[in-house]
Specification:
Elements lengths: L6 H13 L3 E7 H7 L12 E8 L2 H14 L7 H17 L5 E5 L13 H7 L4 E3 L17 E3 L8 E12 L16 H13 L18 H8 L5 H7 L5 H11 L6
Antiparallel strand pairs: 1-2, 2-6, 3-6, 4-5
Helix pairs in contact: 1-4, 3-4, 8-9
């Protein structure tokens, strides 16, 4: 296997390619992720293997998604956003890593057991991309035994981003000299963490959890309208925007009913 010398170079090239498309990449060691997850969720790769998390920033919608709709008219077999993200990431990987053996897992992909291929928020935390705030981060949680879902906050984007994919570079092993980045604890006060989890669990539809810290960049009105629209009705919205032909909408609707909110 190749060793770490090539890793920063590979990540730098990918980072430039993805940045132009409104995405960010964060490398980390596979073993670090496995140390935080139960065995059933482990990634079955070398502990020193190079992994990298990819997330999309608000600008991806205008930079990549709308032009994608323009050129594809959306005959897609899947949710148009998933289709677009897959094409964008796979083209960057082919361009920047032609000689690498890279496994790509997307956030929407499930194993036959119906489990996700990777735990997106844990991977975001481990890679240093965004801090994953959970009930266990609160000293005296006011909700007693109630289940509360955790949520990631990005130090510059708050909640205005989406985790898209995980790359595993099967031939690159990292040595001990590689510094692992910790996520920025940008919601450090206990009362703010409580507020964050309450907004996310009880009022997620109003998106106020995304503004728990001031964000450098937020979704545009058009992007908000798209993501607020239930997946089954997004085809009609795209047609209203002039992106889809009548016949495309039906097939897209059938597919997107299975989709999940972002």
């Amino acid at each position: 296997a190749a060793h770490a010398e090539g890793a920063p170079e590979v990540i730098r090239h990918l980072s430039e390619c993805l940045k132009a498309k409104g995405c960010e990449i964060y490398p980390f060691k596979v073993g670090r992720y496995n140390a935080l997850t139960s065995e059933v969720h482990h990634l079955s790769y070398a502990a020193d293997g190079l992994a990298a998390l990819i997330l999309s920033t608000p600008s991806m919608f205008e930079k990549v998604f709308l032009p994608f709709l323009q050129s594809h008219g959306c005959e897609g077999t899947r949710d148009p956003i998933d289709e677009c993200v897959t094409q964008t990431i796979s083209s960057c990987v082919s361009l920047c890593c032609p000689h690498q053996c890279v496994d790509v897992m997307y956030d929407y992909e499930l194993l036959p057991s119906r489990r996700p291929k990777f735990l997106a928020q844990t991977a975001a935390h481990v890679s240093g991309a965004a801090f994953y705030y959970q009930k266990s981060d609160i000293h005296n949680p006011p909700w007693l035994d109630k289940k509360m879902f955790g949520v990631c906050v990005h130090p510059r984007l708050g909640g205005w981003f989406a985790i898209r994919a995980l790359l595993i570079f099967k031939d690159v092993l990292l040595g001990d000299e590689v510094q692992q980045k910790d996520p920025v604890d940008c919601v450090s006060r206990q009362e703010d963490r409580i507020e964050l989890l309450e907004r996310f669990n009880f009022r997620w539809q109003d998106w106020s959890y995304r503004d728990i810290i001031p964000a450098e960049e937020r979704y545009s009105p058009r992007q908000k309208e798209y993501f607020i629209t239930p997946p089954a009705q997004r085809g009609a919205l795209l047609r209203h925007w002039g992106f889809m032909a009548e016949s495309d909408t039906d097939s897209a609707n059938k597919q997107t009913e299975l989709s999940r909110p972002l």
